[in-house]
Amino acid sequence: xxxxxxxxxxxxxxxxxxxxxxxxxxxxxxxxxxxxxxxxxxxxxxxxxxxxxxxxxxxxxxxxxxxxxxxxxxxxxxxxxxxxxxxxx
Length: 89
What we know:
Distance between the termini: 26 Å
Helix content: over 70%
Structural class: mainly alpha
Shape: rod-shaped
Radius of gyration: 20 Å
Mean pLDDT: 90
């Protein structure tokens, strides 16, 4: 049977990577919105209105991703605490 090795380093990397990934995703989405909005400001085109609706949905989905990333971080923190407790005993 395969052996799984847990490490505090691996758990911390998962926390760091998930935080970095979320920050990059959020920053890129903001950049996209800013560029599109600056090009189409005061435009009443149906395509732009559709884009705004989709942009709001995207922001909601990014928020959901952020919540999942927070869950990953919380789980990894629990793993780190467990490793600390296990190593003390």
